[in-house]
Write a sequence for this structure.
């Protein structure tokens, strides 16, 4: 049973990773097809859609999976099936409601984004692309419930495969649609971007097809389980949804945090830049900040949080068992792993900002400067996600609401004055401070309610920082030498520069980690197993 669970978790993690990887690399051809104007327009629809989709689906698969898994363990299979049937109707209803709200509010959203008509983008175009993406909201919540149902039966394949298929179909439709409209039909940019945003709906249909196919194949087995149902537990629909809602809220808050911070930028950036006489470049700068560089900054966050969050169930178990030593051990490992992975990735991305930006979007001095400053904020993004998850692990998730609200208030208060003072950099400073305050609150709550002490993390954290200093020095030296013969303004040269610098930096980082045995403290048996295999092959 344990091996089946581990295999299922691996399959789901792999599916999620492939999906995220595809979601990152499609921007390389997309940015070249639609150009800066198209990227700006795409970004205007992307942020409000992300907020709505986070509200509609964040936590639903996990909440439903936990609920069904709980009652399946009690052999009360009919309870899970009843939730599934009623849930499909409810999610279809919430999806339709979310679609109507976003579709009808599109003109209001466009007026908020574009304060005057001197901008490059016409508010009517923004309305068009927002309405095109809103159709996806009809089916995505419905789809997320089906994924949760399969996960509750310890069947991770349907979720993993449907995620990958969704991304492949979406990206294929997005790229082909935008290319055909602009280069074959010689159509307008707003039409191309509308097709690109509508691809979310088409991708959803592809995913639904996969899930329905799995349902058809697995239904006989699922019906057999119903015949084994004990039928001794009666749970009302009201209690079902109450339990799911309570479990979903922390995931919704974590999922919506980043889009909300981006939405504050979308609402205030153009106005603030116009007020200091930079209205003519504000839209392009916003697209670089909120879409182009953000896509790259999220890479180290995904890597670190994916690994760190796997440790949260162990924290929950130790906390419920009142095992203080176990809680401290798990929290120590979680924070250290987070720092060990995120810090070098974020600093490395900052150092290699110019070639990284060139590879994805072409050479751009302004984009490079933004990425250089924005990359280290990835550490804060990852820390917020993990500390919020830990609060759930120690059953203090209510404080997640407080920390998020305070963080958003800080961002909202500082964004306009900071943009007026520091231009685009000001928005990054406001984001960093907002996240910093939210993390501070989470850490205080963790310390108070779990009795956790940060001494070991601070000590090891200092060691990780020292390793990062050596890593950056070596990588910077290789980068300097490489740029003497290669140009970071060339895409091919940039790939070579990134590979040379990254290999040199990572090499010294891993060497120091092995030399001090830090890597063994953090990853334990995993490293031992890998080293044994390497020695055997050697």
């Amino acid at each position: 049973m344990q091996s089946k669970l581990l295999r299922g978790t691996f399959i789901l993690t792999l599916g999620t990773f492939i999906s995220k990887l595809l979601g990152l690399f499609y921007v390389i051809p997309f940015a070249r097809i639609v150009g800066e104007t198209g990227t700006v327009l795409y970004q205007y629809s992307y942020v409000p859609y992300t907020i709505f989709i986070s509200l509609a689906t964040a936590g639903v698969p996990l909440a439903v999976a936990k609920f069904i898994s709980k009652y399946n363990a009690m052999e009360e299979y009919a309870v899970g099936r009843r939730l599934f049937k009623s849930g499909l109707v409810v999610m279809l209803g919430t999806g339709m409601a979310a679609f109507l709200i976003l579709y009808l509010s599109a003109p209001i959203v466009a007026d908020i984004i574009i304060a005057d008509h001197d901008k490059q983008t016409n508010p009517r175009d923004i309305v068009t692309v927002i309405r095109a993406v809103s159709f996806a909201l009809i089916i995505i919540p419905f789809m997320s419930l089906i994924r949760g149902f399969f996960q509750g039966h310890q069947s991770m394949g349907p979720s993993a495969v449907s995620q990958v298929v969704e991304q492949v179909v979406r990206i294929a439709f997005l790229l082909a649609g935008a290319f055909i409209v602009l280069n074959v039909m010689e159509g307008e940019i707003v039409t191309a971007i509308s097709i690109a945003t509508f691809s979310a709906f088409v991708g959803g249909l592809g995913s639904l097809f996969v899930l329905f196919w799995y349902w058809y194949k697995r239904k006989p087995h699922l019906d057999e389980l119903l015949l084994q149902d004990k039928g001794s537990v009666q749970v009302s629909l009201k209690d079902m949804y109450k339990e799911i809602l309570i479990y979903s809220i922390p995931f919704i808050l974590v999922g919506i945090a980043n889009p909300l911070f981006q939405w504050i930028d979308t609402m205030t950036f153009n106005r603030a830049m116009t007020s200091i006489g930079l209205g003519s470049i504000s839209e392009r700068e916003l697209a670089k900040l909120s879409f182009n560089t953000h896509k790259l900054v999220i890479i180290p966050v995904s890597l670190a949080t994916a690994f760190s969050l796997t440790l949260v169930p162990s924290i929950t178990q130790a906390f419920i068992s009142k095992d203080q030593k176990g809680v401290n051990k798990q929290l120590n490992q979680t924070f250290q792993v987070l720092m060990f992975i995120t810090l070098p990735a974020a600093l490395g991305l900052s150092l290699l900002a110019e070639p990284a930006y060139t590879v994805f979007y072409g050479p751009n001095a302004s984009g490079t400067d933004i990425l250089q400053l924005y990359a280290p904020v990835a550490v804060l993004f990852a820390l917020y996600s993990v500390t919020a998850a830990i609060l759930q692990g120690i059953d203090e998730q209510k404080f997640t609401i407080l920390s998020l609200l305070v963080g958003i208030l800080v961002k909202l208060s500082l964004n306009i004055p900071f943009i007026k003072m520091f231009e685009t950099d000001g928005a990054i400073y406001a984001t960093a401070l907002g996240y910093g305050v939210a993390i501070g609150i989470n850490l205080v709550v963790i310390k108070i309610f779990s009795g956790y002490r940060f001494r070991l993390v601070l000590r090891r954290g200092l060691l990780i920082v020292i390793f990062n200093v050596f890593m950056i020095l070596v990588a910077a030296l290789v980068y300097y030498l490489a740029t003497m013969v290669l140009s970071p303004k060339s895409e091919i040269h940039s790939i070579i520069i990134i590979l040379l610098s990254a290999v040199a930096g990572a090499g010294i980082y891993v060497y120091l980690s092995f030399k001090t045995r830090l890597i063994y403290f953090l990853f334990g048996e995993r490293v031992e197993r890998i080293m044994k295999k390497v020695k055997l092959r050697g």
